[in-house]
């Protein structure tokens, strides 16, 4: 198939391009590089031996989209392009809604005009809000996401859910990611935050390499085993594997399907620190700090539905997630900017 990958220069998108190419698909990336570097796609080409098509542009640019869809016969779209910094979304809600919700609407309109009706969408476990219980199945009641970023994902899910009701040619996969971490085993591509990382694993990795001094552990009085927050960390390559399987399933099945992509097991912040120390041989200095506003105590997936319907399950354990993160970070201390 010929797949349009929006946000394909980003962290998860670049790993998706690798797997799509390795599975024999043709890939065109649309990315405005607002949170990524073209170098990522050069690295993808080193891994796969083939440069993906690349269009520098914005999913909100209707004219560009029409030209892109006129020039190519896409079979499906994997839509990763979005802004994802939770704190920034609180300060700039309009920017987040315009980019994430507005961008998806423009993209779907262009798809409709071009007669392309298959989309795999990057949603998030944040749509569950503060869960009543764990593990979380897809049928869990939708909670209230605690920030505009989370609400933008929820809104896009609502928009995409309407499409097959109006036109049965649409087939959409809503993939609810738990906590993607890790990097391609080559050490050539990985997560490259532009500013100080918001997320735990890139923060730990930058402490380990000496770019940051100390980790703040946000909250040590949660009702969890050791008092620190518990999350379902999933290797990015397992996550992407779920996308390729979802793509195959929605090819045959119109409508909207929702799948959790998680491992089904949670680790605490302190367990994550210990695992990273073991793999890297570096000490991670940390201090116990107050809870971060909007954080929940514990969140992990019930991945049974994805197992049953996609024939998918996460294969890589915590050690592999940490080893791949460390390989990427230690070989590219400044991310894509140097080295
Ligand atoms: P990322 O920032 O590395 O990748 C997003 C890419 O989209 C970037 O390359 C960016 O330049 C591009 N982009 C943003 N807005 C654009 C626009 N208007 N037009 C064109 N390109 C645009 O983020 P990621 O971690 O790879 O996340 C990919 C997707 O997965 C996002 O939708 C994100 O919300 C979702 N997601 C990520 C996580 C996570 O923890 N990383 C968790 C749940 C969901
Ligand atoms: N966390 C932390 N210090 C940090 C970043 C995160 O203690 O610098 C904790 C956070 O409170 C949560 C876990 O690590 O319990 C995962 O946080 P992340 O931001 O990576 O994911 P999310 O909260 O979005 O699930």
Q: What is the CATH superfamily?
A: NAD(P)-binding Rossmann-like Domain
Structural class, judged by helices and strands? alpha/beta
Q: Please give the radius of gyration in angstroms.
A: 19 Å
Looking at the structure, the CATH topology is: Rossmann fold
Task: List descriptors.
339 residues, alpha/beta, Rossmann fold, 11 helices, binds nicotinamide-adenine-dinucleotide, binds uridine-5'-diphosphate
Could you explain how this protein is built, in words?
The chain is of the alpha/beta class and 339 residues long. It has a single domain, classed as 3-Layer(aba) Sandwich (Rossmann fold). The protein contains eleven helices and 14 strands. The strands form four sheets. It has a seven-stranded parallel beta sheet with strand order 3-2-1-4-5-6-11, with helices on both faces. Strands 12-9-14 form a three-stranded mixed beta sheet. Strands 7-10 form a two-stranded parallel ribbon. It is globular. The mean pLDDT is 97. It binds nicotinamide-adenine-dinucleotide and uridine-5'-diphosphate. Residues 6-7, 9-13, 30-36, 58-60, 80-84, 99, 103, 122, 124, 177, 180, 199 line the site of nicotinamide-adenine-dinucleotide.
